[in-house]
Specification:
Strand content: 15-25%
Largest sheet: 5 strands, parallel
Strand order of the largest sheet: 2-1-3-4-5
Shape: globular
Number of helices: 5
Radius of gyration: 14 Å
Number of strands: 5
Oligomer: single chain
Distance between the termini: 13 Å
Order of helices and strands: EHHEHEHEEH
Length: about 150
């Protein structure tokens, strides 16, 4: 089983950016955590972060050709704006889970809509980096059901 974990804009600034919302762990800490979770679950994982919408779209498209089994995506700010990421997820039809470190439902009004989430079978939000573990397990369980 192989997963792609995608992270959108500004997540590379974890530990620096609004630590009261996102915590004090760094992006490197997040990568190590995700890798450990996947190792423990015997899942091969590729972790990718970009601040550019097109790069995320291309990575999703490439996942189709690389036979990725599932996608965990934190679109970050593109959550609320990116029909392109939504369309890419729909195009490849790879099972996906949306993840957010913060409680987006408790934040600004404009953060209440998720375009990419419309192509995901589940969303995990507000659980910090532990939410990635939950998202990975949800995805694994879904794939084992099908």
């Amino acid at each position: 089983m192989k997963f792609l974990v995608l992270n959108g804009p500004n997540l590379n600034m974890l530990g620096i950016r609004e630590p009261d919302i996102y915590g004090r762990f760094t992006y490197r800490d997040l990568e190590v955590f995700i890798q450990q979770v996947c190792d423990d679950l015997h899942i091969e994982v590729e972790i990718y972060q970009s601040n550019y919408e097109g790069a995320l779209v291309e990575k999703i498209q490439k996942a189709y050709f690389e036979k990725i089994d599932g996608i965990v995506i934190n679109p970050a700010a593109y959550t609320h704006t990116s029909v392109a990421i939504l369309d890419a997820l729909k195009a490849v039809s790879i099972p996906a889970v949306e993840i957010h470190i913060s409680k987006v439902e408790e934040r600004e009004d404009f953060r209440q809509i998720s375009y990419p989430g419309k192509a995901c079978f589940a969303t995990v939000a507000g659980k910090g980096i532990d939410g990635y573990k939950e998202a990975i397990i949800l995805l694994k369980d879904k794939l084992q059901e099908d």
